[in-house]
């Protein structure tokens, strides 16, 4: 089917020349962009008028924990640091079941989609004893939403009794982790161009898995040619933990266990020095920058300006909804800009820098930039559009691209994923959404042992 998006006021392509077009159109055939041009476009079987909009590539979210959308703004840890926050919430998270994973995944995805996200990953590392198939549940949820999904098979093998943070009930043996990782790769991983589902492997962090688990996972990723992901250098406490337990700082420890390679991308990377940055760049590692989470937990300010200057692959991420409390990628883009500027000056990053992190940058981190992350011929039709005639954008049209970051467009008015419309007139296309929200609140209340409002 031929679809034409026409009368686009401003089009941010993120192509090789980083072209920004006025009065543009996009021709899409069977989910793939056939042509991008200016002026009057050709007729299509379906024509969508985007006059009064700025259009960008769909945003790519590079780190999340969907299930945490059930645990937003938990009052007991609203002002806690990461380690204390984790220890408290593990006791709630260990009660999760398949329905909780399915419902919270749809909620988390739809929330991101409402702000322009078309591709996301997720790190699901909780696998309570006796409850199987959590990754399968979130994959089924993702399929129903239509998002392009790159889940990671998270894992924890180091429990509290062995010097880690999680309780025994949510950790698994290394054998079980590897067996299930193989199962998920062989069942779901799609190597084809324009894939809607791919699998990566993700031991949770240096303080929740053994060194043997890290090594075995890296070897498995090489065997099956899949990506690797973990949290790294998020807090000063983690830095101290690694030195105390491993005798090495986090990046050096990753080097020891074979994780500094082009398959790997790391969430946070706050506590780095120049040598760390050089090692990461030399080994072509990627970064999921989580500015809101880093502020929320008081973790620190990642050296993003320096990593960008060094040539690192950088994407943005909303992180889990209980360490951010929001899945709004527009807010993440803005916070990425502001957080660097507050420490390093007004010229630390530009609005276009952070917009690139959220689109092409994220696609590069997930190694999907051959088919998403930009609007150009041959790429998948992953597209977001934002209205320019809103109250908060009024007076900001001298540079609508910068205004998308500096002002407040509130949310996406239109989202297309793989050529299919998923948000129209600012609304998620899912008639079951009100009931889904109701069920999310019921499950959340039960897990937190409170009564829903």
UniProtKB/TrEMBL annotation:
Its EC number is 3.5.4.32. Pfam families: Amidohydro_1. Residues 54-421 form the Amidohydrolase-related domain. Keywords: Hydrolase, Metal-binding, Zinc. InterPro entries: Amidohydro-rel (IPR006680), Metal-dep_hydrolase_composite (IPR011059), Metal_Hydrolase (IPR032466), MTA/SAH_deaminase (IPR050287). GO terms for molecular function: 8-oxoguanine deaminase activity; deaminase activity; metal ion binding. It comes from the Bacteria. This is 8-oxoguanine deaminase. The lineage of its organism: Bacteria, Thermotogati, Thermotogota, Thermotogae, Kosmotogales.
């Amino acid at each position: 089917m031929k679809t034409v998006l026409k009368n686009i006021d401003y089009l941010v392509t993120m192509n090789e020349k980083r072209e920004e077009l006025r009065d543009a159109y996009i021709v899409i055939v069977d989910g793939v962009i056939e042509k991008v041009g200016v002026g009057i476009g050709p007729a299509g079987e379906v024509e969508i008028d985007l006059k009064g909009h700025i259009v960008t590539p769909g945003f790519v979210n590079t780190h999340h924990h969907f299930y945490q959308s059930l645990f937003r703004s938990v009052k007991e840890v609203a002002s806690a640091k990461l380690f204390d926050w984790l220890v408290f919430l593990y006791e709630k998270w260990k009660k999760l079941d398949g329905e909780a994973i399915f419902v919270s995944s749809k909620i988390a995805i739809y929330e991101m989609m409402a702000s322009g996200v078309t591709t996301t990953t997720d790190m699901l590392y909780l696998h309570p004893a006796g409850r199987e198939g959590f990754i399968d549940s979130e994959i089924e949820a993702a399929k129903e939403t239509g998002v392009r999904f790159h889940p990671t098979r998270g894992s924890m093998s180091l429990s509290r009794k062995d010097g880690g943070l999680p309780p025994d009930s949510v950790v698994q043996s290394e054998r079980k982790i590897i067996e299930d990782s193989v199962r998920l790769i062989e069942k779901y991983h799609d190597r084809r161009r324009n894939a809607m589902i791919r699998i990566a492997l993700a031991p949770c962090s240096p303080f929740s898995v053994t060194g043997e688990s890290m090594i075995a996972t890296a070897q498995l990723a090489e065997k099956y040619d899949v990506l690797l992901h973990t949290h790294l250098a998020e807090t000063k406490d983690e830095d101290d933990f690694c030195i105390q337990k491993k005798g090495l700082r986090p990046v050096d420890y990753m080097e020891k266990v074979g994780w500094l390679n082009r398959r790997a991308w790391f969430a946070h990377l706050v506590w780095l020095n120049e040598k760390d940055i050089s090692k990461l760049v030399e080994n072509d590692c990627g970064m999921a920058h989580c500015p809101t989470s880093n502020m929320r937990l008081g973790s620190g300010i990642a050296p993003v300006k320096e990593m960008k200057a060094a040539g690192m692959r950088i994407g943005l991420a909303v992180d889990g909804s209980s360490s951010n409390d929001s899945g709004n990628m527009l807010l993440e883009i803005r916070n990425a800009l502001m957080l660097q500027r507050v420490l390093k000056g007004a010229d630390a990053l530009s609005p276009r820098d952070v917009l690139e992190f959220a689109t092409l940058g994220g696609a590069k981190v997930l190694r999907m930039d051959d088919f998403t992350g930009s609007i150009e011929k041959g790429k998948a039709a992953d597209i977001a559009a934002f209205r320019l005639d809103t109250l908060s954008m009024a007076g900001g049209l001298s540079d609508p691209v910068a205004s998308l970051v500096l002002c407040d467009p509130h949310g996406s008015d239109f989202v297309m994923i793989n050529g299919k419309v998923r948000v129209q007139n600012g609304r998620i296309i899912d008639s079951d959404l009100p009931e889904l929200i109701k069920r999310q609140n019921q499950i959340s209340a039960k897990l937190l042992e409170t009564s829903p409002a």
